[in-house]
């Protein structure tokens, strides 16, 4: 019996090893399912952000007439005036900020798909809907002094959001330039890269010409003339530096960047008050015609898309670019995603109130006023400065390396007999 038991025992020990490949395959399947859930979840957060934007617009333009119940809240002041118009937008923005900041705090340390925080980010929508409703309700009970303080804080947060968005745009331009411009392995992309470069520069020059003919008709429009001419100067400087022998970046990236700063200049001039003789357009008149409505909806979607695209672009802000991606890693940085959306809540508040905490914007208008104009102009100049620094920095680093190597070479040669 003992000999029979000794013969059977080794056979029994080998059986469990058959189940190992099955468990590995099951893990891969689970990771793939969790990854798909996380990718779908970001669109749900984008929809939540869009709904919050619509709530801010509704409270600003129609809240006082449609929501008379808020008149009875003590925090809303006499007649509920502190819960509508500019104050109403800031209260909605604060609620959106609270929600996404809570999501940032609860997901910022997530690294793997099998962690509990990944399930919280990608699921539990009933609980998150309740959290969103509570977050949107809390600002209604805050006094106007706290809301005004949040407005000052939101200006800073909106500025940080613009910087993050700008870095993301420049990283995208750099990637596009590397993808389309030719190298030794991709000689077939040369004609397409040159065609795209020419197209962007033609669009930039045409944009400058159209701005000058539309918004600088008179010599009294000195500010618009300065904006347009300085934009043209920045375009020439970026093109010249890109073609310099030490930089040698080509024309595609500078052409895309030129089109971007021309767009920022055009957007800044259009944000000038409509009563100016140098801005003949009609905007924000309160009639709600189809052109005004369409422009407003396009601007609203642009806010959501800018926030969404910056939020999922966490790779542009990584200090270590060579991190190896494993199959159980999360597809994007959840903490950074929610942080960008919380800053985006401050950004859309500034656009709805035109960066002015004291005066309310007109119906169906967005980002109109001198404050909005100067924010966009400064953003344009800052964008050009960052792009020029990306051109200069590799050359400066290379020159520093050469300067450090030269003394070492002199010492070595002096020792030779």
Give the overall average pLDDT.
77
Question: What distance lies between the first and last C-alpha atoms, to the nearest angstrom?
Answer: 89 Å
Helix amount: 55-70%
Query: Can you write the helix and strand succession as a string?
Result: HHHHHHHHHHHHH
Question: By helix and strand content, what is the structural category?
Answer: mainly alpha
The main β sheet shows up as: none
**Regions with pLDDT < 50 over 5+ consecutive residues?**
1-9, 11-15, 283-288, 413-417
Number of strands: 0
Rg, nearest Å? 28 Å
**How many structural domains can be distinguished in the coordinates?**
1
Assign an overall shape: flat
How large is the share of residues in beta strands?
Answer: under 5%
- Count of DSSP-assigned helices: 13
Layout: helices, strands, pairs:
Elements: H1 2-13, H2 20-61, H3 63-66, H4 85-107, H5 116-122, H6 125-137, H7 144-180, H8 190-215, H9 222-243, H10 252-270, H11 290-311, H12 334-352, H13 370-414
Transmembrane segments: 43-60, 88-108, 129-150, 156-177, 189-212, 224-243, 250-269, 294-313, 334-357, 377-396
Family: Belongs to the TDE1 family.
Subcellular location: Membrane
How would you describe this protein?
The protein is flat. It has 13 helices and no strands. It has helices at 2-13, 20-61, 63-66, 85-107, 116-122, 125-137, 144-180, 190-215, 222-243, 252-270, 290-311, 334-352, 370-414. The chain is 70% helix and 0% strand. It has 417 residues and is mostly helical. It has one domain (21-318, 327-405). It comes from Rubus argutus (Southern blackberry). One of its GO terms (cellular component) is membrane. Pfam families: Serinc.
């Amino acid at each position: 019996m003992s000999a029979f038991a000794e013969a059977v025992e080794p056979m029994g020990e080998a059986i469990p090893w058959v189940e190992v490949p099955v468990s590995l395959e099951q893990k891969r399947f689970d990771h793939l399912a969790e990854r798909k859930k996380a990718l779908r979840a970001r669109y749900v957060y984008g929809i939540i952000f869009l709904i919050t934007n619509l709530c801010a617009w509704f409270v600003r333009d129609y809240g006082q007439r449609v929501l008379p119940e808020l008149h009875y809240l003590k925090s809303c002041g006499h007649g509920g005036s502190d819960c509508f118009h500019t104050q109403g937008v800031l209260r909605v923005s604060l609620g959106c900020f609270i929600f996404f900041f809570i999501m940032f705090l609860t997901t910022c340390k997530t690294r793997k798909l099998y962690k509990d925080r990944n399930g919280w980010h990608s699921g539990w929508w009933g609980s998150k809907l309740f959290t969103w409703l509570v977050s949107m309700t809390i600002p209604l009970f805050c006094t106007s002094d706290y809301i005004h303080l949040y407005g000052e804080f939101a200006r800073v947060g909106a500025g940080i959001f613009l910087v993050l968005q700008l870095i993301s745009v420049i990283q995208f331009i750099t990637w596009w330039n590397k993808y389309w411009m030719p190298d030794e392995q991709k000689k077939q992309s040369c004609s397409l890269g040159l065609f795209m470069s020419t197209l962007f520069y033609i669009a930039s020059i045409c944009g400058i010409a159209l701005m000058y003919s539309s918004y600088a008709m008179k010599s009294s429009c000195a500010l618009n003339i300065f904006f347009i001419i300085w934009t043209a100067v920045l375009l020439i400087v970026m093109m010249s530096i890109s073609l310099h022998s030490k930089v040698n970046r080509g024309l595609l990236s500078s052409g895309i960047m030129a089109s971007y700063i021309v767009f920022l200049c055009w957007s800044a001039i259009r944000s000038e008050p409509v009563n100016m003789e140098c801005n003949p357009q009609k905007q924000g008149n309160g009639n709600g015609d189809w052109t005004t409505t369409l422009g407003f909806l396009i601007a609203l979607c642009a806010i959501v898309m800018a926030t969404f695209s910056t939020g999922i672009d966490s790779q542009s802000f990584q200090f270590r670019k060579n991190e190896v991606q494993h199959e159980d890693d999360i597809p994007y940085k959840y903490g950074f995603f929610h942080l960008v959306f919380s800053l985006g809540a401050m950004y859309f508040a500034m656009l709805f109130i035109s960066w002015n905490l004291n005066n309310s914007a007109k119906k169906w208008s967005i980002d109109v006023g001198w404050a909005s104009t100067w924010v966009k102009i400064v953003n344009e100049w800052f964008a050009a400065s960052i792009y020029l620094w990306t051109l200069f920095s590799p050359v400066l680093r290379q020159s520093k390396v050469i300067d450090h190597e030269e003394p070492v070479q002199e010492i070595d040669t002096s020792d030779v007999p």
